[in-house]
Amino acid sequence: MRPFLHDRLQRWHGLVTLCNEVLTKLGRKDLDVAVAVRHFLGEAIAVQRQQQRPAAENQLLALEARYLSALEGIDPATQQVVRMGRRTMQRSAAMAVLIQAGDLVRGDWERDQQVLEQARADLQPILVAAQQLGLLDPSTEDLGSARLERLWRRVRETPQTAAAAHSVQLRLNSSDLLLLIAELIEHGRVAGDGGHPA
């Protein structure tokens, strides 16, 4: 089953925002940094698990283990017990963990965004062709799922647009597809001649 990318982008955005907040705490040397770092890692692990991404979950679990080791006074880089400068070591470990976890989540966000941007770019000429063939009315009124599903069914069943529509549909969750269609219609990016109500 293809993931619902619009929903997943919101989750990635939330994690990036949370990571930024924790980095700010670290920069201010807030007393609750350790709690904040562990909370962020827990949230990130939970999202990756919910999204069924075991490799990314494993990376975050490893980062969490490194940070917990630092909190216990063991330098993650050397695996040696630190007796002097323990707080500095823990702050350095927190910074390293946050940067790596943030990079991972940001990479997930950018990949999903790229998939949607490519699908949007591929979908636009299909809808322009559908408008020119009289398959849709580009009105922005009543862009409910029933109308959008009717429109897409016509596009898929019309020989001139069927192959391109099938190619896009193979890459997207149906909810993502309908949201992109609505977005393109709302922004007036399906202009053409003619048209009948979808």
Descriptive account of the structure:
The protein is mainly alpha-helical and 198 residues long. It has two domains: 5-111; 114-186. It contains seven helices and no strands. It has helices at residues 5-28, 33-50, 54-71, 86-132, 145-157, 159-169, 174-186. The protein starts with a helix and ends in a 12-residue tail after the last helix. Mean pLDDT is 92; it is low at 193-198.
Describe how the helices and strands are arranged:
Blueprint: H1 5-28, H2 33-50, H3 54-71, H4 86-132, H5 145-157, H6 159-169, H7 174-186
Helix content: over 70%
Structural class estimated from helices and strands: mainly alpha
Beta-strand proportion: under 5%
Kindly state the number of beta strands: 0
Total helices: the number is: 7
Name its key features.
mainly alpha; elongated
How is this structure best summarized?
This protein is mostly helical and 198 residues long. It has helices spanning 5-28, 33-50, 54-71, 86-132, 145-157, 159-169, 174-186. The protein folds into two domains: 5-111; 114-186.
